[in-house]
Fold this protein.
Amino acid sequence: MALGQQQRVTKERTSTKKKTDKTVPAAEAVFRADPVLCFLEPKTSAQAMWGMSLRDRLIKQFAKEDVTEIIPVDAVAGHPGPVILLREDCVIDPPLVPVIAKRPQFALLSDVETDICPVAVHTRGEAAVSAAESMQSNQPLPDAANLIARRPSELSATFWDKLRKREVPYARAVSPENHAEAEWRIFMGTYKGATDLVTKYLWPKPAFYVTRWLAPTSITPNIVTALSGICVLLAFWLFWEGQFVAGLVFAWLMTFLDTVDGKLARTTLTSSKWGDVFDHGIDLIHPPFWYAAWALGLGAVGLAWSAGMFNVILIVLIGGYILQRVMEGIAIKALGLEIHIWRPIDTFFRLITARRNPNMVILTVVTIAFGRPDWALEAVAWWTIICLVLHGVQLVHALIVKSKEGELTSWMTKPVDTNAPS
């Protein structure tokens, strides 16, 4: 059939479709731009991970990229468009999913250097057929497939700029032998590149076990966030009453649940805009109220300050908290990146800067070691002043460097191989 005749037939069939809305346009049957998924049967028994099968995890991940249609492997040869081949026994870090979905003629290799078989391939036609055969037989991709094959550590600088952390994303097959390792790797992959010392060093292990216990249950991340909100109110009331140690117990429980709710949402792929607002809203609002309640509670134990001292301490604590947040916002807008990920020293400073968790460490240590909750809050006030000065120097220096160099680059744009021996 001549090209002109084919175009006329296509227009006629498309027109018929518009009138009846019962058939797929002929043009779409000839060529499809949107990829579909095709799962390749696993070589090992199916593994559940964080409350769902690996296949269901992948379906949920790709649905966020609007890739929802699934075809069987025997339909690959006749499919008129791109196909994303996925090993049904693999796990893929969420930041890698858009890379796979939006990059044709691409193969994602495992982050484990010894694995030669890809975990995902985005291609079409004969290349898809030959790639599927290779993946099913656990063999390297044939040269004839003409695919760009990359491990996560080999992705472009643009990808790492968006990732904002140095840890190499995971992409690997899961077996009974490495299931526990993969489960831990998924959990740790939910952490940010820069955070405080409590979140980074104290909570991961206990949060891992609690999150794993909650994952298969009906307890949602928002329920955990609601429980943390109750702990915020209990700590506030106990501080006001001068029951500082009891208040610290609920305050620490809140910080722990604040870790768990986010990890539960990310490991079970149930993050939502409302959950994010709910969680971050509580995080943003409560610290100044805790400080005010603590200052008021000093009167209940005979350690009340003078009116002048009371006002100065609260102005420093609440004003310093607000100013620090403002500085971070200015950095993001003016510098184009979070100030805490610019240089290694900035990331280290994030561990101990006067945010809630480091301040909680000061409050707890001074209160329990010396029995002086007034000294504890004064120490937090002094630490807030010191950190404000350091943040100011940090921000001014960054603005000067940017004015000279034109752009700042995060030190986290260079990946660290998590499989390398330590």
Notes: The chain has 16 helices and nine strands. The radius of gyration is 27 Å.
